[in-house]
């Protein structure tokens, strides 16, 4: 196990110990001082900061590197969100190799994607979103090194109450459970040269490939879903320097013919023959 993996595992263990101690103290009226309960929390953040300083944790930016050009992973009309073209880290954290990650949502026609609502409906069915079930394509000739599609697709988090639940409760629980719970169903491709492409939040049961398969650029890999730490059906795409999002660092990307779309930028990619060479 790498040093970065050990740091991440120990960090999660200390956070779980903190929550366990606080719960036990309240439920059992333990006699020790309350500040003892916070020792695991303090140690967790000391460990994370020390790991970042010494290169052991995955929460620091990667050394400067040229953007890697790959094919777009989708076709049709899409909108970019949380784009590294606007700021990095694009998702406000370097964790899980997502320094240069991007989220994209499908909108075949203007207004065809349900809008965010303040209160009602609190959540929507995935079928209401045009991205749900959209095919995802290999961005290069590659080898599948990770593939998982057993997690369920949950309802959208498209209202203030649902978003508050996601940010305050669900996201923290998922983070404690590891990268797999954050990215949900996913596939990771080894593009060679130490570059790996990750597709997150895939639809349950939609994978068309398995670990060890060789794929061609443009080949369909899976479908867009709403699994993991996700507000609505969308694709979370990123390049990273290792196959494990828990320890990898992000690598900048650019899509051939598109570049890196900015936040709220609409872009369209024409369909091309499945499996066609890049």
From TrEMBL:
The chain crosses the membrane at residues 9-28. This is M23 family metallopeptidase. Keywords: Membrane, Transmembrane, Transmembrane helix. Pfam families: Peptidase_M23 (PF01551). SUPFAM superfamilies: Duplicated hybrid motif (SSF51261). The lineage of its organism: Bacteria, Bacillati, Actinomycetota, Actinomycetes, Kitasatosporales. InterPro entries: Cell_wall_metabolism_enzyme, Dup_hybrid_motif, M23ase_b-sheet_dom. Residues 182-241 form the M23ase beta-sheet core domain. It comes from the Bacteria. The keyword Electron transport does not apply. The keyword Transmembrane helix applies.
């Amino acid at each position: 196990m790498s040093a970065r993996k050990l740091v991440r595992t120990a960090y999660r263990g200390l956070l779980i110990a903190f929550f366990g101690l606080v719960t036990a103290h309240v439920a059992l009226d333990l006699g020790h001082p309350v500040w003892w309960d916070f020792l695991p929390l303090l140690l967790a953040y000391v460990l994370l900061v020390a790991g970042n300083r010494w290169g052991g944790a995955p929460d620091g930016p990667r050394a400067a590197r040229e953007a890697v050009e790959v094919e777009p992973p989708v076709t049709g009309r899409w909108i970019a969100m949380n784009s590294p073209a606007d700021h990095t880290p694009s998702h406000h954290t370097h964790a899980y190799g997502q320094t240069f990650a991007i989220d994209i949502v499908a909108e075949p026609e203007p207004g065809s994607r349900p809008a965010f609502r303040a209160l009602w409906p609190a959540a929507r069915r995935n079928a209401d979103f045009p991205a749900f079930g959209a095919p995802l394509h290999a961005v290069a000739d590659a080898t599948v090194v990770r593939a998982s599609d057993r997690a369920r697709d949950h309802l959208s988090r498209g209202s203030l109450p649902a978003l508050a639940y996601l940010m305050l409760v669900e996201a923290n629980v998922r983070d404690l459970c590891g990268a797999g719970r954050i990215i949900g169903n996913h596939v990771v491709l080894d593009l060679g040269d130490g570059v790996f492409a990750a597709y997150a939040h895939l639809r349950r049961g939609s994978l068309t490939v398995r670990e060890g398969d060789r794929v061609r650029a443009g080949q369909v890999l899976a479908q867009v879903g709403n699994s993991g730490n996700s507000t609505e059906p969308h694709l979370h795409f990123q390049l990273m320097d290792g196959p494990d999002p828990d320890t990898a660092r992000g690598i900048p990307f650019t899509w051939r013919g598109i570049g890196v779309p900015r936040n709220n930028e609409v872009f369209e990619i024409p369909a091309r023959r499945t499996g066609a060479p890049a």
